[in-house]
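Technical note accompanying the year-one report. For the benefit of new consortium partners, we illustrate the data format agreed upon in the data management plan: each record pairs a sequence with a structure-token string. No post-processing was applied to the example shown here.
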Amino acid sequence: MKKIILVGYMGSGKTTIGKKLNQNLNIDFIDLDEFIEQKEGLRISEIFKQKGEIYFRKQESIWFKYLLNEDKYLIISLGGGTPCYANNHLRLQDENVMSFYLKANIETLVSRLKQNSDRPLLQNINDLNSFVGQHVFERSYFYNFSKYKIDVNNKDVDDICLEISSIVQKNN
């Protein structure tokens, strides 16, 4: 069964777009971070504090593989770091996967991230522009394993979803 995977840096719109695609395509949507929180019984920020990032990344990979093996269509939004660990980026090329890199520029990401301070990796960051720029640079190699790249700058959610839906329908 095909999986639609949404990839991108935090703030790129993966969850928002995933929820809208769920409505448009009538395919179950799972935010991987929320799924992990349910399974672990802790918020992601608490997992980072109590058990550390390495533990989180291991669990993240385990649950990502689990969802990819589910025998049903799914839309899955990954955490910003998911493709960068445990060779998860290679799964973006799987035959049963349609992966989309929601590509946003630094200005767009910083603007969105300033509105949400509950992100574990952003705690105690003084220069958000430099931090995000460096992170996106480091992670873009992994994100670019996605089969499709969608520019999300200056586009509304409906237009982005229409673009993704069009690609999905052509390939089913």
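Partners are asked to follow this layout when depositing records. The chain is about 50% helix and 15% strand.
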